[in-house]
Amino acid sequence: DQQVKQNSPSLSVQEGRISILNCDYTNSMFDYFLWYKKYPAEGPTFLISISSIKDKNEDGRFTVFLNKSAKHLSLHIVPSQPGDSAVYFCAASKPYNQGGKLIFGQGTELSVKP
Amino acid sequence: DGGITQSPKYLFRKEGQNVTLSCEQNLNHDAMYWYRQDPGQGLRLIYYSQIVNDFQKGDIAEGYSVSREKKESFPLTVTSAQKNPTAFYLCASSIRDNSYNEQFFGPGTRLTVL
Question: Rounded CA gap, A20 and A73, in Å?
Answer without folding.
Answer: 10
